[in-house]
């Protein structure tokens, strides 16, 4: 049976709200969850200052400099086959979910269940199991709407950069072809050099060569043929 993420539409809608580079990394992580059939609900990404103030007031958050405010964090919860959220820490340290969390870490995320990244959740004084934040180059360093996730969409600046690269490559190709053609002309002219006219005529008359491309490079197999013809005509 083909795996179907129960909350796929909601998950993608929330992922699309993230900052550019965070979004790219988050989608890689989300695809890992799909590929490994790990059911999750991404229930929050971007957050308003008012919402963050409420969370701090009730102890759900510790700072007003939340990575959610700048689009560099997401909150998720594992769900069962019925689509029910399973909030306990045991759900997060389950083998398949932990594999997803470890993959997120490899992409540059910090997990709220292991702030010091020592692989142990029990030593955390503030456990925020749903939380994954993407540090990128630091707090509020990511951008919005300057990078497209989908490969079929480019910003104007990206398009101009790509077009410039294509033009550079085309110019290099034209130059390369010109150099090749010049070398081909140099080594494959049909004109026999003045000092080689007599010997070339003799070789043609004696059927050692047909006279084509007299200044082209001589391959080994052509040399073998000429030696054989010479042997057959003058020595044998």
UniProtKB/TrEMBL annotation:
List the Gene3D superfamilies: 3.30.1380.10
Alphabetically list the UniProt keywords.
Carboxypeptidase, Coiled coil, Hydrolase, Protease
Cite the Peptidase M15C domain residue spans from the record: 61-134
Coiled-coil stretches are 159-186
Q: Which Pfam families does this one have? A: Peptidase_M15_4
Task: Respond yes or no to whether keyword Coiled coil is given for this record.
Answer: yes
Q: Which GO terms describe its molecular function?
A: carboxypeptidase activity
| InterPro entries xrefs | Peptidase_M15C, Zn_M74/Hedgehog-like
Superkingdom, natural source: Bacteria
Q: Spell out the protein name for this chain.
A: D-alanyl-D-alanine carboxypeptidase-like protein
What organism, scientifically named, is this protein from?
Answer: Ureibacillus xyleni
